[in-house]
């Protein structure tokens, strides 16, 4: 079984903790991780760009001049894409960039990324983090005690802790996630993953099924 260090919020190492083999020691599937990350990034795209075709532009119902005999090129509408103020040819229209992924793929990608983080020594546990009130400096001090002040860190909580969330949100290199919301992209986008111990148990229950 893979082992990771468990610390208290003062940075003192308490013990080595064994993690679930099926979650943190799985076979790494780079292809699935790539698919899942691409799908997550695609889902963030708005797809709201919109243009009007000649059928959507106001006006142009009457033929501008007769077909023959004028010496000019024939035209059927002043809203043709050839005219100033006319429609746009093959312009963008609102769409969704979402890609379908199965639950099995998402879980496989998560297990692959978590396994990789453990192998690279980029995952640690903290027994608990208790803050009396929202205070950014308190989280900065905790990260400094864990020697993580210069790293991009994702902090995984078992449930929403308003004091911790508010304290960490103003730190540029720190992101907080709930155990039920972890995803492959955010784990890969950060150098270190810090789990509050209870959050690990919740992840193991879900991904170890």
From TrEMBL:
Task: Tell me the segments the record calls region Disordered.
Answer: 44-76
GO terms for cellular component: ribonucleoprotein complex; ribosome
Nucleus as a keyword of this entry, yes or no, is: no
**Where are the compositionally biased (Basic residues) regions?**
60-76
Subunit structure, as described in the record: Part of the 50S ribosomal subunit.
**Family according to the record:** Belongs to the universal ribosomal protein uL4 family.
> What protein is this chain from?
Large ribosomal subunit protein uL4
Q: Which organism is it from?
A: Halanaerobium congolense
What are the top taxonomic ranks of the organism? Bacteria, Bacillati, Bacillota, Clostridia, Halanaerobiales
Query: What gene is it encoded by?
Result: rplD
């Amino acid at each position: 079984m893979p082992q990771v260090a468990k610390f208290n919020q003062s940075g003192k190492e308490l013990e080595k903790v064994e993690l679930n083999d099926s979650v943190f020691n799985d076979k790494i599937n780079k292809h699935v991780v790539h698919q899942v990350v691409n799908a997550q990034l695609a889902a963030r795209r708005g797809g709201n760009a919109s243009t009007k075709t000649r059928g959507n532009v106001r006006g142009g119902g009457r033929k501008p001049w007769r077909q023959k005999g004028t010496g000019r090129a024939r035209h059927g509408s002043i809203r043709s894409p050839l005219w100033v103020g006319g429609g746009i040819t093959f312009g963008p229209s609102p769409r969704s960039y979402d890609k379908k992924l199965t639950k099995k793929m998402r879980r496989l990608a998560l297990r692959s990324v978590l396994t990789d983080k453990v192998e690279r020594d980029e995952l640690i546990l903290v027994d608990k983090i208790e803050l009396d009130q929202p205070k950014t400096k308190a989280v900065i001090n905790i990260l400094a005690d864990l020697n993580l002040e210069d790293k991009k860190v994702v902090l995984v909580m078992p449930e929403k802790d308003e004091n911790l969330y508010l304290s960490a949100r103003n730190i540029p290199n720190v992101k907080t996630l709930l155990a039920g919301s972890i995803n492959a992209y955010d784990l890969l986008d950060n150098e270190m993953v810090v789990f509050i111990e209870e959050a690990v148990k919740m992840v193991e229950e879900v991904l170890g099924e």
